[in-house]
Structure formats: structure tokens, C-alpha cells
Specification:
Structural class: alpha/beta
Number of domains: 2
Bound molecules: nicotinamide-adenine-dinucleotide
CATH topology of the largest domain: Aldehyde Dehydrogenase, Chain A, domain 1
Distance between the termini: 48 Å
Shape: globular
Largest sheet: 7 strands, mixed
Strand content: 15-25%
Length: 499
């Protein structure tokens, strides 16, 4: 049985707490590894190590730190297939999707190559008589990243890139369900030149997280996961005086207007609803057709597409559409929610409940389900299912559809399919959701923008990656300077490099 420990001070170390968690193979239902769960003492020691290493790293000039990011990006590209396989092996997503997971993280590292531009600060010459003002962006110190199971490469990279490029040290606490990718990324960034101790990967559960939240050395916490945990971590981190940004769950709606291209809308819905078995915070889980004719036309197109979906293990080849869900509990919970939808009166148009994967009967595969006539009071509407289940809520007008999105407790992503620019523009302007797609189902912004939801999908006030991440991981210091006299002769004539 493979045993996974921690990555501390530039090396793999075994756990000493005596506690471990099972890392499952979701396709077979077998335990494929045991991952160590850090004790309070182990976590505190890792934080102390990071604090020591951070001093020299912060003093390393930004372009040298950026060069580590350049080399890191090269190494991620070089090891793309290996990293994708690590992702798929523990998460269960298909290999092309695993590569996408790595790719969308890599793109944030690419932006971090330009970190010096984002860390420049501001300057005003002669703000008063003989007085200059300038502000600096300085690293916070030791920060923490706490990440979910569903993007084992992308989200750790979103966390570590901007934090490290800004001169911080980071404690990365990956999901205990998919820990291997973070451990491998730690090896690669060391090879890229990151000094030992600047990135510590500490595996663990609530005990490790609570230790991070209570440790006075930790200056900031970046969390991604479910909403109840996001809210808990945000509260405890803030109470302890830390900076916190905590991204939570979602219920993403796609409005389909009567003038939309129905085939394109149906294709988009199938990919966005069932890709990665629906285990994406940006998955579309609610289709909102406007008008019964639109709804009928949409359902008619969705059914054959959903029935044709190929479910299977990532090893089965490139034509598999999605793999298993993450655990037996997740599978059971999804089945329970589908049952509740039927009991509460929704029409189950495609029933994925009895799906069984031949040869993988113990795996956590869930067949795709499509509901029609869902209403906002049903549990399948209220809860984030995080599985291959698409609910259709029929509306009779654009205003009613907009209101549905606006009154939902979550506000991560949303989308509208229409041929009318005015409707699309009105939707983008009015909707209270952080990321909006127009004829685009999963509007995860590119890495030089920022990522973040509204309402119960995010706690804190700055987004992940892009310029916001550099604001989050640095603090501003402003200097007001006056010099009474100076040396005005002598000089250097050689054009010298700054480093
Ligand atoms: P989760 O909340 O169960 O776990 C996330 C992290 O929190 C893990 O590292 C876990 O070890 C830790 N954790 C779990 N329970 C804890 C507790 N009681 N106290 C302290 N720490 C705890 O989430 P998950 O199941 O791994 O991920 C799926 C969720 O993440 C979904 O809700 C999804 O929408 C959300 N998500 C959000 C985004 C976003 O950017 N908004 C992105 C990806 C996933």
C-alpha cells in the first residue's frame, strides 16, 4: 500500500501522528494509498520552517522569483501527461479533463512570471514641496492554501503561484482525497529553484486546518471548498486577525432564451452539466428555459445527448465523457437527492439511478439524470448536488428567469444563451453573480482576469488569481519622504543591470 506523507523543508517526510486517511481509486472502489494526517505539532513545525525560509525568499528580488515561475511552468509542461494522470488516478476525471485541470493552473503560473509588474507599487513625485510619496507591496509572511478535491492541480497552483511570486512562504493543505498532485508539484517547483521550506505541503484534515487557523505566524488563508467550511474558516481566520478569502459552493444557472440556438445550447448544457461528473464549482446544474416551447425544444435535444453519454474509468480511452464521483458517500448522497426530486414531484426525464459500470461494479459511477419541472422549493434545486444531475426550471419570461438567478443563495457562475445582444447585455449588467457567460457555459475567466463568486459562493473581498491575488498576498506600505540636502556631484557612467 502506497503511503503518502508531507513535503517539509524540501523533502518528503513520513507522518508521525499515527492518523491516516484512505485515498480511494474512485473507479474501482479500492483504497490505493494511505495519506498521513498531520498533528498539531507537525503542522506547527512546518509553519516554523516556512517562517525561517520566508525571510531570504522575500529578500530575493522579484524578477529572480519570477524566473523560478518560468522554470516551474516549463517543468509543468514537460510533465503534463504525468500530472494529468496523477489527477485522474485519485479524482477519477478523464485524462483530457485531467490535462485541463493542470493547464488552467499552469496559466496562473504563466501570469506569475510577470509578477514584478504587479508588485511595483505607486509613486508620486513632489506630492508636497520637496516631498515624494511611494507605496510598496510587501509580502505578508507565511500564508496558507487549503484546497478541495475536485481540481487537484489547478487550485493548488492558483494558490501557490501568486503567494510565492509575491515573496511569501506557503503552507499548502490539499484535499486528503487527492493529495499526490500537490506533492509532485512541490518536487517540480523545488527543481525550478524554489528554496527549501518556502512551500510546505502538509496533508491533513480538520485538525491540520484548525492549527493553521489558530497559529499566529499564519498571516493569510486562501480556502476553496464547500460553503459551510468556507464560512467557518473565514470566521475563525478573521477572528484570529488573519486575512482570508474563502471560496465556496455553487448552483449555476443557464438561461436559454427562445431565440437561442437550441442545438448549441443543448451541447453546452451537456458538457457543462455532466463534465467531470458534475463535480465542478462552475458546472451548470440548473437549466432555465424561457417559455414552454423553448423548454420542450431543449428537453427534446437534451435527452438523446444525455442518453449517449459514455461513462467510464479514465483508463478506458479518450471517448469517455466522464468518470466516477469521488467517494461512495458522494454517490449515495447524489442518489438520495435524485430520489427526493422524484418524491417532491419533479419529472425525471433521464434516470441515472440504476447505472452500473460493467467490470467496475464497486466503483463510484453515477449515471446521468435529467429533471424537468423542477421548482425552487425542491431539495434538488436548493442543494448543490455536485454530481451528474441537471435540473430544468421552466420560466415564462426573461424577468422571471433573471429573478430566479438573483434570488438563489449562490452566485459563482451563470450563463445566458440568446441571439439578442440587448438581452445579453442587460443580463450581464444586472445579475448578482461573479462570473457570467454569454453563449458560453462555463465562464472561468482567463488567468489575467480574476476568479470569484458572489453571495454564498465566496467570503472575503478579493478574488483568486490575476491582479487581485497579488493584492491579497501583499500588504501596502506608503512612504512620505523629504530630503533636506543631497550630494549633487559625482556619478556612475556604466549602464548596470539591477540584479
Ligand atoms: P470541502 O469543503 O469538504 O473540503 C475542502 C477543504 O477543507 C479540504 O482541504 C478539507 O480537508 C478541508 N475541510 C473539510 N472539512 C473541514 C472541517 N470541518 N474543518 C476544516 N477543514 C475542513 O470541499 P470538497 O468536497 O473537497 O470540494 C467540493 C466543494 O468545493 C464544492 O462545494 C465546490 O463547489 C467547491 N469548490 C468551489 C470552488 C470555488 O472557487 N468557488 C472551486 C472548486 C470547488
Amino acid at each position: 500500500m502506497q503511503e503518502l506523507g508531507h513535503w517539509i523543508n524540501g523533502a518528503h517526510v513520513a507522518g508521525t501522528s499515527g492518523r491516516t486517511a484512505d485515498v480511494m481509486n474512485p473507479a474501482t472502489g479500492e483504497v490505493q494509498a494511505k495519506v498521513a494526517l498531520a498533528s498539531v505539532a507537525e503542522m506547527n513545525a512546518a509553519i516554523d520552517g516556512a517562517a525561517k525560509a520566508q525571510v531570504a525568499w522575500a529578500a530575493t528580488n522579484p524578477q529572480r522569483r519570477a524566473r523560478v515561475m518560468m522554470k516551474f511552468a516549463d517543468l509543468i509542461n514537460e510533465h503534463m501527461d504525468e500530472l494529468a494522470e496523477l489527477v485522474s488516478r485519485e479524482h477519477g476525471k478523464t485524462l483530457p479533463d485531467g490535462r485541463g485541470d493542470v493547464q488552467r493552473g499552469l496559466e496562473v503560473i504563466e501570469v506569475c512570471m510577470g509578477a514584478p509588474t504587479l508588485l511595483k507599487g505607486e509613486y508620486m513625485n513632489d506630492g508636497g514641496p520637496g516631498i515624494d510619496l511611494y507605496s510598496m507591496r510587501q509580502p505578508l509572511g507565511v500564508v496558507a492554501g487549503i484546497t478541495p478535491f475536485n481540481f487537484p492541480a489547478m487550485i493548488p497552483l492558483w494558490k501557490m503561484g501568486p503567494a510565492l511570486a509575491s515573496g511569501n512562504a506557503m503552507i499548502l493543505k490539499p484535499s486528503e482525497r487527492c493529495p499526490s498532485t500537490s506533492l509532485r508539484l512541490a518536487e517540480l517547483i523545488k527543481e525550478a529553484g524554489l528554496p527549501d521550506g518556502v512551500l510546505q505541503v502538509v496533508n491533513g484534515d480538520k485538525e491540520a486546518v484548525d492549527t493553521i487557523l489558530d497559529n499566529e505566524t499564519i498571516q493569510a488563508v486562501g480556502f476553496v471548498g464547500s460553503t459551510p467550511i468556507a464560512q467557518y474558516i473565514y470566521g475563525r481566520a478573521c477572528t484570529n486577525g488573519k486575512r482570508a478569502q474563502c471560496f465556496g459552493g455553487a448552483k449555476n444557472h443557464m438561461i436559454i432564451m427562445p431565440d437561442a440556438d437550441m442545438d448549441k445550447a443543448a451541447d453546452a448544457l451537456v458538457g457543462a452539466g455532466f463534465g467531470a461528473a458534475g463535480e465542478r464549482c462552475m458546472a451548470i446544474s440548473v437549466a432555465v428555459p424561457v417559455g414552454d416551447k423553448t423548454a420542450d425544444a431543449l428537453i427534446e435535444r437534451l435527452v438523446p445527448r444525455i442518453e449517449a453519454l459514455k461513462v467510464g474509468p479514465y483508463t478506458a480511452g479518450a471517448d469517455v465523457d466522464y468518470g466516477p464521483v469521488i467517494t461512495a458517500q458522494a454517490k449515495e448522497r447524489i442518489g438520495g437527492l435524485v430520489n427526493s426530486g422524484v418524491e417532491q414531484g419533479a419529472k425525471l426525464v433521464v434516470d441515472g439511478r440504476d447505472f452500473s459500470m460493467q467490470g467496475y461494479e464497486d466503483g463510484f459511477f453515477v449515471g446521468p439524470s435529467l429533471f424537468d419541472n423542477v421548482t425552487p422549493h425542491m431539495d434538488i434545486y436548493k442543494e448543490e448536488i455536485f454530481g451528474p444531475v441537471l435540473s430544468t426550471v421552466r420560466t415564462q419570461s426573461y424577468e422571471e428567469a433573471l429573478d430566479l438567478v438573483m434570488t438563489n443563495q449562490y452566485g459563482n457562475g451563470t450563463s445566458i444563451f440568446t441571439a439578442d445582444g440587448d438581452t445579453a447585455r442587460d443580463f450581464a449588467n444586472k445579475v448578482n453573480v461573479g462570473m457570467v457567460g454569454i453563449n458560453f457555459p462555463i465562464p472561468v475567466p482567463l488567468s489575467y482576469f480574476t476568479f470569484g463568486g458572489w453571495k454564498k459562493s465566496a467570503f472575503g473581498d478579493l478574488n483568486q488569481y490575476g491582479p487581485d491575488a497579488f493584492r491579497f498576498y501583499t500588504k501596502t506600505k506608503t512612504v512620505t519622504a523629504r530630503w533636506f540636502s543631497g550630494i549633487k556631484d559625482g556619478g556612475e557612467f556604466a549602464f548596470k543591470a539591477m540584479d
